[in-house]
Amino acid sequence: MDKSALHVISLVSVGAHPTSGRPRRAEQDARAVELGLQLAGDNLHVLHAGDAEEPALRGYLGMGVDELHVLAQPPGADALPGLADYIRESGVQLVLTGSQAETGEGSGMLPYLLAEKLGWPLVVGMAEVESMSNGTAQVLQALPRGQRRRLKVRLPFLATVDNSAPKPRQSAYGPAQRGLLDVEEIDVVIDEVFAGAELTPAKPRPKRLKVIKAKSGADRMKAATAKASGGGGQVLKGVTAQEGAAAILKLLVEEGVVR
Amino acid sequence: MSDIIRRDPRAEWIARNRLHPLHAAMQPAQTRWMGPNGVLRKNVHGIGFIGPNGVKRIDRSGAQQGGAIKRSVSVDVQLPLHRIATPAFYIAVVPDMVGGRLSSHDRDLLGLAHGLAGNEGAVLAVIFGEHKETAFDTAGVDRLLILEGSAFSGYSPEQRVQGLRAVDNQFDPHHWLLPDSRNGGGELGRRFAASLGERPSTRVWQVAGEQCVGRAGAGTADLSRPVSRLILAQAECAEPVSETRHEALPVELSTAVARSLPRIEDLGAVAVDPALIPMSEAEFIFSGGNGVKDWPLFHRTAVALGATEGASRVAVDDGFMGRDRQVGASGTWVTARVYVAVGISGAIQHLQGIGACDKVVAINLDPTCDMIKRADLSVIGESAAILEALIEAVDTYRNGAKRDAA
């Protein structure tokens, strides 16, 4: 892959520390920057829509990015139109984002809406870019349970990264302070729906109770004392090892775990 | 067999007739006899029968004949049927169907949909491709729509959105419910929302009246808002349906689904080193215990199957496996879909650890152990021979598949 020919934008936001709530670089966005640096090196473009004065933004500059582009917006403004216009004019092949913001609503809708607005394909949970050639890219998508799926996608495309993307490098203080912030003023579109919503501290969710709907005392006693529920399984006794193995393999293939 | 206790006049007649050839068989089992040393012996287990509620009953009136009559204890309760003849509106649910079956998350969602549908609306489940589920009726599905076709197979989010749009046009559901999970529901729901241009309620964990509560930000805040048309709900958002049976009537789309040119091509799953997958989230665990004598063979089988290795406490204590591989109450609580236990008798601590597993396969010498009672498939026999045969069977299966492809 030719690093100089590839242009990548990583979208970043301001995160919040899970315990203290202090502003920090967002975990998944930092992974998006890390992946962008590995793919494009100096050609990585880091973009933020929001308050340019936020000191936590410099955390991304400390990862080895010379310049951070900021579309200045007040809090509560809709980032989507500004970002879409900027990306459309930039002519990049790949846009990387985290999958969900750490502050605000955090619905994770932005990449989907952006892809819909730009008309680009969207890869969810990208873990690795294997190759790029002839206007297509071959990427690995992270699935639950540590699995991976190989996808072939047409350029340009949008990709979200989650916790299976490479770990972000540490942010260095000196480069973070020396880095440049390129601020651009854009039209402000207020997000009407979210403006009225109210965020409250998260309530602990109630634990689900195990309700026993037994009609008789004997059923209740059985439910309270029952050990392993038996009887449902198939027991193969007195069969040869080959027959037993064939039965096990049949089940494993049916369940799709042996391919 | 019916659970109603009936008199059998013929059996009574034979029991009275000492000359009848079947007379001996119809006598009650001997419960007391004089032992050789002049001590009276009693067999207390032979007395009585199991009554209709699963309780042992002893009839001392003398009316009982024959040996212990086994009556089936489990009574299949037929739940009342919830019938919606002409639905006033639909609540559409798109379950994840991990492994082709409804997950507990899907069932919670169907419970939520049943609550939203009330007595007039119908719950419409939209399934893509093939499935293995047999219990749609008790899960709360009133109408079942299966979108078949090669276009929906594999990873095809864009085509599935087209399918959902066609369903939306025809049925116009009041609400769309999707699981906010990493198994595809969260992604499909958001794609569908972006395509419809509707704002979904995401990460919802409670729906109460006209308001729903969802997590916001990094999970440290709650957002309460009016219920939107599209709901992406978390697990345990509602109680699953348990008191009614539903029709699960198949319905069909009247129009063909628009074909979208796939911009993302699925090249299939990639082989991942199973040893690197954390055990708590591994999908397929091959676990060994005290009954495994040949550990190199065990490791070879795990590699052949492509499974993550696990172990019982005994195997870890004896030093055959690392402590991080221990399954059970003092080790890892696993969530595997398929769990193969080799030579594990199934201590209660171990069974707790595999409580979330879907399918359990046991290979054991002892047919009475607790693991066999838990397992869906058990093979009684010497583990070494079965593992050798299993490696061979997997090799032939894979080679056969290769020959078919060539």
From TrEMBL, chain B:
Protein name as it appears in the record: Electron transfer flavoprotein subunit alpha/FixB family protein
Pfam families documented for this protein: ETF, ETF_alpha
InterPro entries in UniProt: DHS-like_NAD/FAD-binding_dom, ETF_a/b_N, ETF_a/FixB, ETF_asu_C, Rossmann-like_a/b/a_fold
PANTHER family reported in the protein's UniProt record: ELECTRON TRANSFER FLAVOPROTEIN ALPHA, ELECTRON TRANSFER FLAVOPROTEIN SUBUNIT ALPHA, MITOCHONDRIAL
Keywords of the record: Electron transport, Transport
Domain of life: Bacteria
Keyword Repeat: no
Native organism: Pseudomonas petrae
Family: Belongs to the ETF alpha-subunit/FixB family.
Transmembrane spans: none
SUPFAM superfamilies: Adenine nucleotide alpha hydrolases-like (SSF52402), DHS-like NAD/FAD-binding domain (SSF52467)
Domain Electron transfer flavoprotein alpha/beta-subunit N-terminal: from-to ranges: 91-271
